[in-house]
Description:
This protein is mainly alpha-helical. Helix content is 48%, strand content 10%. It contains 5 helices and 3 strands, in the order H-H-E-H-E-H-H-E. Helix 3 (46-55) links the parallel strand 1 (37-39) and strand 2 (58-60). The radius of gyration is 12 Å and the shape is globular.
Amino acid sequence: ISESVDQVAFTKVVEGKDSARDAEIFDACELLRAPAVMAHAVLLQPAEIDLLARRGCAIAHCPLSNAYFANVQLDVMDVLRRGCRVCL
Length: 88
């Protein structure tokens, strides 16, 4: 979910709207629910992290993959402060 700039852009193209976001789509499909674990999530917006936390989801953090493919790191401390679980 929201793994790279290219993947986020692809979601917008596929959905046909510039405001399309993975978390919104996953939630509409009822995929955001415990005990779901979402991979990467480095480009989620704060409200989307809050949504994952409310739904009981966790984020699988893959630092090497994120550095290589997205050139972005997950702000693990912020995610934890927002009440969303993180695993490596």
